[in-house]
Design a protein that fits this description.
Order of helices and strands: EEEEEH
Number of helices: 1
Distance between the termini: 27 Å
Radius of gyration: 15 Å
Helix content: 10-25%
Oligomer: single chain
Number of domains: 1
Shape: globular
Length: 75
């Protein structure tokens, strides 16, 4: 997975904060099917510093991604 950041109000070069394959240990699924990805990436401003990032996806977001990818799991 690759995650980049760049200025929102003006053009700018993207900076990679995270660039490696996700590991099983990065993924948590709760009893309701909510998926949380948690990983350590680079800090935006401070060299050699890191931040812990979490992205939480509910069922609606997961279904939208599956649909966008054209996948069908037999529904």
């Amino acid at each position: 997975m690759k995650m980049t950041v760049q200025p929102g109000k003006r053009p700018g070069l993207p900076k990679a904060l995270f660039n490696r394959d996700l590991r099983t240990s990065d993924i948590e699924v709760d009893e309701t099917g909510v998926v949380t990805l948690t990983f350590v990436g680079d800090d935006i401003y401070t060299p050699r510093a890191t931040q812990r990032f979490s992205i939480t996806l509910g069922q609606n977001e997961i279904e939208m991604m599956v649909e966008a990818m054209g996948l069908d799991f037999g529904r």
